[in-house]
TrEMBL record:
This is FdhF/YdeP family oxidoreductase. It comes from the Bacteria. Pfam families: Molybdopterin (PF00384), Molydop_binding (PF01568). It comes from Metabacillus halosaccharovorans. The keyword Nucleus does not apply. Residues 659-753 form the Molybdopterin dinucleotide-binding domain.
Length: 786
C-alpha cells in the first residue's frame, strides 16, 4: 500500500452560515435539548475535591471516552480546543476517592440495593477483596493472598476451563497486549473483549470485502465529500465532538444523510458547545433521513443497486464506476445477476422505504464523485451483521469510493482504544497483527518464545453458556477473570447470566469500581482487584482511535485521591503468569510500558512506530491516510470482492413489531441520565410510531407491555418519529426481551433485535397469560413522569 501521510489538524471555516442554523433564538431556549454548559458546571462541582488533577487529565491525557481520539484538548482533525459531555461524564471515575470502609464491608444484601449508577458514584475499589461462599461481606486481602488464590486455582484447572475478558473502559493497548500474551502463555485461547461484541462484524465483513478490518478513511475526509452517509449510527450522541466535524463538512458543501428507523433528534439538530455559532443557534446536521425498518438495510441497498443496474441498462456508465470495477473488483457479473433477481415488492416490504425514495438516494449517489459511509450498532448488532456491512462495501466498490481523499468505509467506533483491542490480540480469533491462523501462530511463537494453544477459543456469549455445562465437561468454565465489564447489563437474557456467574468456582473482577455483577455469589469465592486508570499507569500508555491514530497518554501526577493499593492492569497479568508458571514466566516479563511498545512494534507490523511514542502529544497513524490507497486492497489478488447477500427473513408475523435497544445518555452500560436530553424519554419509555399505537388503541404515556417467548418488558408508550412496525427500548432495561444463544454467523456477536407483541398493560395483566414468563420490572408508578 502506498502511504500518503495524514496532514494533521486544519483550521475550521470561521464564516457563520445561517442556512445551517436550527433557530435564531439563542441557546435553543425552550427546546428539548442537552444543557451542555449546565452539565459541565455540575461536573466541575463533582470534581472539586481533586480539581487540579481533573484539569491535568483533560489538558494532558488522551480521552478515555469515545474513540475519536482527543489528546489533551487537541485532535488531528481540526485546530482549536475540543471538549464534550461524554468525556466530562467519565472524568469522575479517574478523580474520585476510595469507597468508605463501611460500604466496602457492608452486608451483601445492603450492597445489592444499589444500582450500578449508585455504586459507581460511591467511589473506587480501595484494596483487594474476597467474599467466599456463604459469607455476607467482603473482607480485605493482601495482593499476595489474592493472587495466590487465583493462581492456585488456575494450576488445578485445564486451561480450557478458564477465560479472560476485557471491557472498553479506557484500557490501553499495552494492557490488551499483555493480557492476550499472558492468556496464551497460560495455555488458554478463551480471551475476549467488549469491542468484539460491538464491531467484530465490521472487521469480518471488511476483511472479506476489501482485506482490512479498520476504517479506510479519516474524519477529514468528511470535509467536502459529496455525501456523508450514516447507517444506524447516532454519532452525535456517542461521540459529541464529531458534530464539529459534521458542521465543518456542511460548511464545505457535504450532504449528510442518515439511514435509521428512528429520525434521531441528535442527528437532526445539535447545539455544539465548543463552537460559538452552533452553541448559540444550533446546527441542522442531517439533510435527509431514510427511515428504514430494523433489519431492512440489506433490502434497501439491494434497491439502490437494482436502480443503478437499471440506469446502466439504459446508459452505460451512468451509475457504475466501470474503470474502478474492472481494475480493482471481483464478482461484478454475479452481483448484477443476484440483484436483478430481487423484486421491488420484496425490497420495499423488507426495507420499509418507497421505491421513489430509494431511487432518489440511488441517483444522488450515482451523481456523487465521493462519499464516506460510516456505520455503528444499527448495522452490527444483528444475526446477519457481516452481510449488512459487506453490502455497504458493495456500494462503495461499485462507485469506487475507496482508497482516496473524501471517500471510504468507516466503522464508527464507540469507545477509546477498542480499535486496538483486536489489533493487540485480545480476541479468540486473532493474534497481534493478523488472524489466529497457522502462519501467524508460527510467527508469534518465534517472537514470544513459547508454544501457543492451537484449539479455538470461545467468544464471551459461549463462555457464559459453558459455565453451566456438566462438571466433567472439558470446556466447563470454572474461573472467569474479568477486567471491567458488567454482563448483567450488557448481555441478552440477564436472568441466565446471573445464574451462570453464580455457578463459577472463582470469579475475578479487576476493576476501578464495583457494579451489580461484582455482587453476584460464586461457588468458592469472588475476588475483587483494584486497577489503576489509564492516567495512573506507570510510564503512560497508548490508545488507537477510529481513524487508526495511535495516541500516547502520559502518566499524570498529583492525584489527591490516589488509591495506594491499585495496580496497573498489565502488571497484574504479569504477576499472575509468574505465579502460575514461575519457571518460564521470564518469557512474558515486562518492566515498563516502553518495553511493551517495543515488542508491539515487532508483533504487529502495522504498529511499527508505536515504540517512538514517549510524551504527551505523540501520535502516529498506522496504514497512512487511506487504506487500499489507489484502489489496491491487501487481499490475495489485490482486488476488492463484491459479495452477494440475501435479504434476511425476520419471521415477523402480522401485528408484531421488531424491537431494538438504544443507548440514550449513557456510556456502554454506565447510565448517566435517567432522561434522554434529546427526546425527553425516560428509561422505561417504549419509543413507537403514533399510527401503530392508534391501531391498537394505545395513548401516549399509557402503560404498555412488550413481550415475546423470552421475556416481558413493562413500560410506557412514547410517540416519536420512527418507522412503522419498529420499537426502541433502552439498553440494558430491555435486555429481558433478548434470548441468549442467537449469534451472528460469522463474527459470533449476540443479536440485539427481536420480534415482539405489544399490548395495553391493563389488558395484559388482566389475562396474566400462562404461556409467558412473568418478569417483574419496576412498577409502572415508580417511574411515572413527575
Amino acid at each position: 500500500m502506498g502511504e500518503t501521510k495524514h496532514q494533521g489538524p486544519i483550521k475550521a471555516t470561521k464564516t457563520p452560515q445561517p442556512k445551517h442554523w436550527v433557530s435564531p433564538i439563542p441557546f435553543g431556549l425552550g427546546k428539548v435539548k442537552p444543557h451542555h454548559f449546565r452539565d459541565t458546571m455540575k461536573v466541575a462541582w463533582d470534581n472539586k475535591d481533586n480539581i487540579g488533577y481533573a484539569t491535568r487529565i483533560l489538558t494532558q491525557g488522551v480521552c478515555d471516552g469515545c474513540a475519536l481520539g482527543v489528546s489533551g484538548l487537541q485532535d488531528q482533525t481540526l485546530k482549536g480546543p475540543h471538549m464534550c459531555t461524554t468525556r466530562m461524564n467519565v472524568l469522575r471515575l479517574n478523580t474520585m476517592p476510595a469507597l468508605k470502609e463501611e460500604i466496602v464491608h457492608a452486608d451483601i444484601d445492603d450492597l445489592r440495593k444499589y444500582s450500578s449508577t449508585d455504586l459507581r458514584k460511591l467511589g473506587r475499589i480501595p484494596y483487594p477483596l474476597i467474599r467466599r461462599k456463604g459469607e455476607r461481606k467482603f473482607s480485605r486481602l493482601t495482593w499476595n493472598e489474592a493472587m495466590e488464590i487465583i493462581a492456585n486455582k488456575m494450576k488445578q484447572l485445564d486451561p480450557k476451563q478458564y477465560a479472560f475478558y476485557l471491557t472498553s473502559r479506557g484500557i490501553t493497548n499495552e494492557s490488551y497486549y499483555v493480557a492476550g500474551k499472558v492468556a496464551r502463555f497460560l495455555g488458554t485461547n478463551n480471551i475476549d473483549n467488549a469491542s468484539r461484541i460491538c464491531h467484530s462484524p465490521s472487521k469480518t465483513a471488511l476483511k472479506r470485502s476489501i482485506g482490512v478490518g479498520a476504517s479506510t478513511a479519516n474524519y477529514q475526509d468528511w470535509f467536502g465529500t459529496d455525501v456523508l452517509l450514516f447507517w444506524g449510527s447516532v454519532a452525535s450522541n456517542a461521540s459529541p465532538v464529531s458534530t464539529k466535524y459534521m458542521l465543518e463538512a456542511k460548511k464545505r458543501g457535504t450532504k449528510i444523510i442518515v439511514v435509521n428507523p428512528y429520525s434521531e433528534p441528535a442527528m437532526d439538530k445539535y447545539w455544539i458547545p465548543s463552537n460559538m455559532e452552533s452553541a448559540l443557534f444550533g446546527t441542522k446536521l442531517a439533510d435527509d433521513f431514510y427511515q428504514v425498518n430494523i433489519g431492512g438495510d440489506i433490502a434497501f441497498m439491494h434497491g439502490i443497486m437494482k436502480h443503478w443496474f437499471e440506469m446502466e441498462d439504459r446508459h452505460y456508465g451512468s451509475a457504475i464506476n466501470h474503470k474502478f470495477v474492472q481494475q480493482h473488483v471481483n464478482g461484478y457479473e454475479d452481483l448484477v445477476n443476484h440483484v436483478k433477481q430481487q423484486t421491488w415488492d420484496d425490497i420495499i416490504k423488507s426495507s420499509g422505504i418507497s421505491k421513489e425514495r430509494i431511487i432518489e438516494l440511488a441517483e444522488l449517489l450515482a451523481r456523487s464523485k465521493n462519499a464516506v459511509f460510516a456505520w455503528a450498532l444499527g448495522l452490527t448488532m444483528h444475526s446477519f451483521a457481516t452481510d449488512n456491512i459487506s453490502q455497504v462495501a458493495n456500494l462503495a466498490l461499485l462507485r469506487g469510493y475507496l482508497g482516496r481523499e473524501n471517500s471510504g468505509l468507516m466503522p464508527f467506533r464507540g469507545h477509546s482504544s477498542v480499535q486496538g483491542s483486536g489489533e493487540m490480540g485480545a480476541d479468540p480469533f486473532v493474534l497481534p497483527g493478523s488472524g489466529f491462523d497457522e502462519e501467524n501462530a508460527k510467527r508469534m511463537e518465534q517472537i514470544w518464545g513459547f508454544e501457543l494453544p492451537k484449539w479455538q477459543g470461545d467468544i464471551v456469549g459461549v463462555t457464559l453458556e459453558n459455565i453451566v455445562l456438566p462438571d466433567d465437561h472439558e470446556r466447563k468454565i470454572k474461573l472467569y477473570y474479568l477486567s471491567g465489564g458488567n454482563f448483567l447489563e450488557t448481555m441478552p437474557d440477564p436472568d441466565f447470566v446471573e445464574k451462570a456467574l453464580s455457578e463459577l468456582d472463582i470469579r475475578v473482577h479487576q476493576d476501578i469500581i464495583l457494579n451489580t455483577s461484582t455482587l453476584v455469589d460464586a461457588k468458592e469465592a469472588v475476588i475483587v482487584l483494584p486497577a489503576k486508570t489509564r492516567y495512573e499507569q506507570e510510564g503512560g500508555g497508548t490508545s488507537t482511535s477510529t481513524e487508526r491514530m495511535v495516541y500516547f497518554s502520559p502518566q499524570i501526577e498529583g492525584n489527591k485521591n490516589e488509591i495506594e493499593e491499585a495496580r496497573a492492569e498489565w502488571k497484574i497479568y504479569i504477576d499472575l503468569a509468574k505465579r502460575v508458571k514461575p519457571e518460564t514466566a521470564h518469557l512474558v516479563e515486562f518492566t515498563s510500558g516502553q518495553e511493551i511498545r517495543d515488542e508491539i512494534a515487532i508483533a504487529n507490523r502495522d504498529y511499527d512506530g508505536i515504540q517512538h511514542l514517549k510524551k504527551q502529544g505523540d501520535v502516529f497513524q498506522w496504514g497512512g491516510a487511506w487504506l487500499c490507497e489507489g484502489g489496491v486492497c491487501p487481499t490475495s489478488d489485490g482486488k476488492g470482492n463484491l459479495i452477494s447477500v440475501e435479504i434476511p427473513e425476520l419471521g415477523k408475523k402480522e401485528g408484531q413489531f421488531v424491537v431494538t435497544s438504544r443507548r440514550g445518555k449513557q456510556f456502554n452500560s454506565m447510565v448517566y441520565k435517567e432522561t434522554d436530553p434529546f427526546n425527553g424519554a425516560d428509561r422505561y419509555d417504549v419509543l413507537m410510531n403514533a399510527e401503530d399505537a392508534k391501531q391498537i388503541s394505545i395513548a401516549e404515556g399509557e402503560g404498555i407491555v412488550v413481550y415475546n417467548g423470552f421475556g416481558v418488558f413493562q413500560g410506557r408508550a412514547k410517540f416519536v418519529d420512527i418507522a412503522r412496525g419498529n420499537l426502541e427500548v433502552h439498553f440494558p432495561e430491555g435486555n429481558f426481551l433478548l434470548p441468549r444463544g442467537r449469534y451472528e454467523k460469522y463474527a459470533g456477536i449476540p443479536d440485539y433485535n427481536i420480534t415482539v407483541t405489544v399490548e395495553k398493560a391493563d389488558r395484559y395483566n388482566a389475562r396474566k397469560d400462562v404461556q409467558y414468563v412473568e418478569k417483574q420490572i419496576d412498577d409502572l408508578e415508580v417511574n411515572a413522569p413527575l
